[in-house]
Amino acid sequence: MNWNELLCPRREYLSPRYNPNDTRTDFRQDYHRIIGSASFRRLQDKAQVYPLRRGDFVRTRLTHSMEVSSFAGSLADTVFRRLKDKDITDDTRRSCIDILECAGLVHDIGNPPFGHFGEFVIREWFEDNFSNLKFRGENVNDLLSEQMKADFLNFEGNAQTLRVLTRLHSLMYPGKGMNLTFALLNTIIKYPVNSTKIDKKSGDIRTKKLGYYYSEQTLFNEITESTGAGELRCPLTFLLEAADDLAYKTADIEDACVKCYVNYNLLSEELKSENYRALCETDEEAAELENAAAELEKSYGSARKYNMSDPKIKAVQRWAVKIQSRLVTEASNAFCNNYDAIMAGELKSDLFENSSARVLMKALGEIAYKYAFRSDDIVKTELSENSAMRFLLDKTIGAALRFDTPEERGCDRDLTQVLSENYLDICRRACENKTAAEQCYYRLLYATDCISGMTDSYALDFYRKLLGVEV
User: Fold this and answer.
1) Contact 187, 234 (CB under 8 A)
2) Is 229 exposed, middle or buried (0-12, 13-18, 19+ CB in 10 A)?
3) Mapping DSSP to helix (H, G, I), strand (E, B) and coil, where does residue 320 land?
4) Tell me, what's the pLDDT at 131?
5) Using 50, 70 and 90 to split pLDDT, how confident is the model at 308?
6) How far apart (Å, rounded) are the C-alpha atoms in residues 134 and 144?
7) What is the C-alpha separation between 257 and 172, in angstroms, rounded?
8) What is the gyration radius of the CA atoms in the chain, in angstroms?
9) Burial profile 135-159: b = 16 or more Cβ within 10 angstroms, e = fewer
10) Using CB atoms within 10 A of its CB, is residue 77 exposed (0-12), middle (13-18) or buried (19+)?
11) Whose CA is closest to 170, among 449, 464, 467, 457?
């Protein structure tokens, strides 16, 4: 792979400049299209970790995405300044910064309501119900191809993100998305394989999940042929992933502390645990753990010295910022040290797996999961979310398979009328002159598009209205 091809400014549709005095680069135009979009604004009411929580502290998908954008741009600036001996020009560096800032903003834009739990419920619903679904009298399980079925059984927010950006977001014309540059679109495709090529045991991060649906197969080929990446991971994707990982793993601890799932003493104890020390394979990995624990104590000392209120919470917040700085350095080192392998498509794991922060990152993830994500009140909330999501899927998928058919019911017409008119139009266009299998597939996509496009609050309110419960 080479940067002349990877930084491809091409768009799927011609996009003439309406103002000849507009001197913005193609990638800065992408940035402003994203910031001004309704799809981006919806992230303010989608959960990062704590669904259905009101308050001004806990992060949403919007604030998380802004943090990832910031870290991704900083990583690009850092690594490409260090790689000047690899013939990286200032123009290349600036373009990479712009692309990664955009990618950080949109990387979660396809996530359904209720965070990653929403993805799980969608996958589980199809696993439970495929054998019972019918379209025009035929069993859906027999009608669809293996890839079509696998798209739903492995429903993934990353693949949905590509669909939102290129098909569902309505800027000027239905079905044409935001019309972003191919360089940006390639960057957000974390897993450049379809749903039949998922192999979690391969040892190659590319095949961990699907990166695009059957519906975007042709577009995927067009993007990756234009950038020269093919089925290899775009190099910028490694930096986007690192920015995402370091943002949420530190933020999850900070949020959990403010929410009283984790406290200063518990965090300090965990960071010093022999369980994590035993996972260290090098002295450098052990040093990162020890330094993290020492930095936490130092932050607490500073908070007490300045007589801060809630010094233990302030210590964790200050500590999170310090650790983020360390993780930016570690991710940058890993990218630079593995640059040739990354450009050749040979690096099989993420940047932190190839850094001294490997065990520290694992510890942060496990601490948040053990004490916050599996806490009783979050589990209870997930049970409520499961009921809402399954009910909405039952109703929406039933209506999607029956509308405009002899089996259509009055309630199906009513439901499609109040769901997204834009998505319904996209579905009808996609079904034109298609086989029965393809029509069935695009109708199911219409249902998952509608559900995924809902915010947390809208999904819960809509669920209550369909139940006849006053909101």
Assistant:
1) yes
2) buried
3) helix
4) 92
5) confident
6) 11
7) 44
8) 23
9) beeeebeebbeebbbbbbbbbbbbb
10) middle
11) 449
Could you report the per-residue pLDDT of 367-382, keeping only the tens digit for each?
999 988 887 778 888 8
Query: Which of 2-6, 173-177, 274-278 comes out lowest in average pLDDT?
Result: 173-177
How many Å apart are CA 450 and CA 439, to the nearest integer?
17
Residue 286 CA: distances (Å) to CA of 243, 269, 276, 423: 22, 15, 9, 51
Element (H, E) at 135: strand 134-135
- Burial of 118 by CB count in 10 Å (0-12 exposed, 13-18 middle, 19+ buried)? buried
Cβ–Cβ contacts within 10 Å for residue 452, how many? 26
CB atoms within 10 A of CB 5: 14
379 burial (CB, 10 Å; 0-12 / 13-18 / 19+) is: exposed
Specify the amino acid at residue 47: A
Distance separating alpha carbons of residues 407 and 440, to the nearest angstrom: 14
Helical (H) or strand (E) element with 134: strand 134-135
- pLDDT per residue over 94-119, tens digit each? 999 999 999 999 999 999 999 889 99
Write the burial class of residue 269 (CB in 10 Å: 0-12 exposed, 13-18 middle, 19+ buried): exposed
CATH superfamily of 3-111+156-234: Hypothetical protein af1432 (1.10.3210.10)
Taking a C-beta distance cutoff of 8 angstroms, is the pair 160, 110 a contact?
yes
Residue 96 DSSP code: H
CB atoms within 10 A of CB 58: 18
Alpha carbon distance 185, 62 (integer Å): 19
For the segment 235-244, the average pLDDT, to the nearest whole number, is 98
**Size (the chain), residues:** 471
Give start and end residues of each alpha helix (H) in 9-145: 26-35, 38-41, 61-82, 90-106, 115-129, 140-143
HSE toward the beta carbon, residue 110, CA cutoff 13 A? 26
Other residues' Cβ atoms within 10 Å of the Cβ of residue 80: 24
Contact 106, 188 (CB under 8 A): yes
DSSP letter assigned to residue 21: T
Q: How far apart are CA 419 and CA 449, in angstroms?
A: 10
Name every residue whose Cβ is closer than 8 Å to that of residue 443 and which is 6 or more positions away in sequence: 135, 400, 401, 403, 427, 431
Ramachandran class of 115: left when φ > 0, alpha when ψ lies in -120 to 50, beta otherwise: left
Listing DSSP states for 219-245 in one string gives HHHHHHHHHT-TTSPPHHHHHHHHHHH
pLDDT, tens only, 262-288: 999 999 999 999 999 999 999 999 999
CA 441, CA 434: separation in Å to the nearest integer?
A: 10
Residue with tokens 């601490």: 367
Report d(CA 427, CA 415) in Å as an integer. 15
